[in-house]
Amino acid sequence: MSLSHQEILEHLGRVLESRKPINGGDPATSYVAKLLSKAPDAILKKVGEEATETVMAAKDLQAGRGEADALVYEVADLWFHSLVLLAHFDLDASAVLHELARREGLSGLAEKAARPAD
User: Quick check: 108 and 67 in contact, CB under 8 A?
Assistant: First the structure.
């Protein structure tokens, strides 16, 4: 039986929540629990590494030295570690999906111009 994309994200969210040390996640037996036990710095480091690897895979593909599968693999790693980061802050994929839905139909330039100045 195949899960829908939504079901995959929901299942992954439940797994990540269960891996939190506060929920019994064991850093000795779970990679995610280990990251969460060293949060946020360990997670931020992994997100940075995966972002860099994603950029490198895209550059390789653009230059004809890489495969599309390698880019997909790296983006999956980046998404996964981003979901771990969200879980650390008690957020999940639905928060990102809601933000993307909010932006639907907005011009990217108009949306950026409407942001408060830093």
Answer: no
